[in-house]
Amino acid sequence: MQKAVVLLSGGLDSTTTLAIAQHEGYEACALSFRYGQRHEFELHAARRIAASFGIRQHVITTIDLRTFGGSALTSDVVVPKGRSLDQMTVGIPTTYVPARNTIFLSFALAWAEVLEAHDIFIGVNSLDYSGYPDCRPEYIEAYEQMANLATKAGVEGRQRLKIHTPLIALTKGQIIRRGLDLGVDYSFTCTCYDPSERGEGCGECDACLVRLKGFAENNIPDPVPYRLSGAVV
User: Which of 13, 102, 158, 206 has a beta carbon 3.0–4.6 Å from 123's, enabling a disulfide?
Assistant: First the structure.
């Protein structure tokens, strides 16, 4: 089995991406980050997910993007809540973390070179309202081109890196359906931008609302708990 580095946040998208990588026959090596995010529960979720998938190599590395701030996820900026789906389609939200995917992919690139892996999987999505510039297909294409110029293995012709984005053109409902078809247990995941200490979703942030919409489109309840009893879109 060829190895692939899979970015695993502990959320719904990255968990589905991990399932897809395994389904496609890769030995997935999971990479998670303690980057100064508002809460640690997503890393607890990532550990549980990696264990449930039988991942043999799961690295959690620490970087501190609170040094720069600039995001509701890495500073004291309030997480936006209660926005309509139409409001989510306008502009780039304050939950955007400056250059986060560029930083994460750089770590993944370094580990892939060490592992002699030719593949990186990342669960970016250009639909469903995020508006993040580092989730767009053109960004991924440009990063892949740069990555193949950036390493010793690439220059010596020993590595031709491919960045896989299997979710990039799917809606949240389609992502959930794909994961369910692969047997993903979404009760392990943490999507909320502002969960409780026990990992309960707020039910009001953009991430919760889009997630709930995706489960509603599949006519099944979201298996994770929410602080707001009976939270609905």
Answer: 13
Domains contained in the chain, number: 1
Label each residue of 56-125 as H, E or C.
Answer: CCEEEEECCHHHCCCCCCCCCCCCCECCCHHHHCCCCCCCCCCCHHHHHHHHHHHHHHHHCCCEEECCCC
Q: Which amino acid is at 203?
A: G
- Residue 212 lies inside a defined structural domain of this protein: no
What are the tokens at 67?
A: 């040094």
Q: Which residues contact 194 (CB under 8 A, 6 or more apart)?
A: 38, 39, 79, 81, 202, 205
pTM exceeds 0.85 for this model = yes
Question: pLDDT category, 228, cuts 50, 70, 90?
Answer: low
Q: Please check whether residue 109 is in contact with residue 103, taking contact to mean a CB–CB distance below 8 angstroms.
A: no
The helix/strand/coil state of 153 is helix
Alpha carbons 90 and 105: distance in angstroms, whole number? 26
We report the CATH number of the domain holding residue 96 as 3.40.50.620
